[in-house]
Amino acid sequence: THQWRGIIEEYRDRLPVTDTTPVVSLREGGTPLVPAQVLSERTGCEVHLKVEGANPTGSFKDRGMTMAITKAKEDGAKAVICASTGNTSASAAAYAVRAGMVCAVLVPQGKIALGKMGQALVYGSKILQVDGNFDDCLNLARSLSENYPVALVNSVNPYRIEGQKTASFEIVDALGDAPDIHVLPVGNAGNITAYWKGYKEYAADGIATHTPRMWGFQASGSAPIVRGEVVKDPSTIATAIRIGNPASWDFALAARDESGGFIDEVTDREILRAYKLLASQEGVFVEPASAASVAGLLKAAEQGKVDPGQKIVCTVTGNGLKDPDWAVAGAPQPVTVPVDAATAAQRLGLA
Ligand code: F0G
């Protein structure tokens, strides 16, 4: 009997920890790499989904947070702070509980999904809703961490990137080599930075024979990297990636250019179409921002940018239960029936 031990124990030799580092873990990582049948048929490729919603707090942030909180604890920090569109804060709050630390959270007022707010609350973090967007929250969090005794655990913290790079290790370990293409949603651009670092490290050590092309997708209303300029008032239904001035902008450009990939945008309509396809045809329920990767792959395929026969991994970054409004909206209201088998059978179309 063996269970996955969490990314620090599983990849200890590739992470900045020592024998005395106090590991703070919820046994994150080890997430499913699921073959995507319908997406494979549509693209003529072998498409896999890296289902990061299966992490302890429901998103990929746990990979980075186990490292960031572990190192904060090692440094003697008593409190951590983050700006968030909802997932980073959920993760920071949970790992702070494990570490016995206070967690302060800054979120854009009215712009985070209810499930994520519930997580920050139930884990007992100190939440402030900021009258501004994510970029304002991050500026505020940076300034507080510079002037008060509180450690910043956003992805500008290099330990976050170290933890998140382990997703690439898991993919190569599962497939036996790197994929040809890796597709990701892009918000603050930490994750594309981390995946690229992970792939490069495995290739440098000969564990993978090559690195994939990195394809990133932003939401059209929040696509500063695509536009080449800061978006002052970002908008999109995918609130997780509603970001106008990504902190890891330059690293995202490096990942794109070094890998021979690209960063493009997808509309909210394309995101919602991919969101519904993932749930109804692949059986994988993700939050809207996560569907940006798949929306992007489908857009690229329609544009003829996807040669058949390639191995492609799409990361779906967060669990659909975090933001179920989009699953319920526009769906027909379920029919109410009496406690009667004949009526139920008839309504179900069985009789
Ligand atoms: N998908 C989800 C579900 C996210 O929560 C995020 C980022 C991203 C994609 C984009 O990743 O920022 O590394 O490019 N969420 C951050 C947060 C901003 O505060 O939870 P990125």
From TrEMBL:
InterPro entries per the UniProt record, alphabetical: Ser/Thr_Dehydratase (IPR050147), Ser/Thr_deHydtase_PyrdxlP-BS (IPR000634), Thr_synthase-like (IPR004450), Thr_Synthase_bac/arc (IPR026260), TrpB-like_PALP (IPR001926), TrpB-like_PALP_sf (IPR036052)
Top enzyme class: lyase
Binding sites annotated in the UniProt record for pyridoxal 5'-phosphate: N87, G187, N188, A189, G190, N191, T317
Family per record: Belongs to the threonine synthase family.
Lineage of source species: Bacteria, Bacillati, Actinomycetota, Actinomycetes, Kitasatosporales
PTM sites of type N6-(pyridoxal phosphate)lysine: K61
Name of this chain's protein: Threonine synthase
Catalysis performed (reactions): O-phospho-L-homoserine + H2O = L-threonine + phosphate
GO molecular function annotation: L-serine ammonia-lyase activity; pyridoxal phosphate binding; threonine deaminase activity; threonine synthase activity
Chain's role: Catalyzes the gamma-elimination of phosphate from L-phosphohomoserine and the beta-addition of water to produce L-threonine.
Keywords: Amino-acid biosynthesis, Lyase, Pyridoxal phosphate, Threonine biosynthesis
